[in-house]
Amino acid sequence: MSADGNWNLVIHTPMGPRDLALELQTHGTTFTGKATGPMGEAQVEGKVEGERLTWTTDITSPMPLKLQFDVAFVGDAASGSVKLGMLGDAKVVGARA
Fold first, then answer.
1. Tally of domains within the chain
2. Single pTM value for the model
3. The dihedral of CA 19, 22, 38, 56: what is its sign?
4. What angle do CA 88, 59, 89 make, to 5 degrees?
5. Three-state SS at 28
6. What is the CATH number of the domain that holds 60?
7. Model confidence over 11-30: pLDDT tens digits?
């Protein structure tokens, strides 16, 4: 099943869970979309490798970090991880909205 559509993810950070809504559209081996979270909206784009989508996002609050996502979208479920710079890795889980 395609990752196209709307997703609700939860990132389990060291500072507690953070909700992230994604709108995704795949284009062969790439994807584009929009991420909406507590800090606002951002355009996202990345790679599609089978069921896995990978992308990088820079944030500035609560501190500057480069977030590197690696998430599998299987059926109506999503799971994976995000590298939080110096804070290590965090689990990502979610479901189709």
1. 1
2. 0.93
3. positive
4. 15
5. coil
6. 2.40.128.120
7. 999 889 999 999 999 999 99
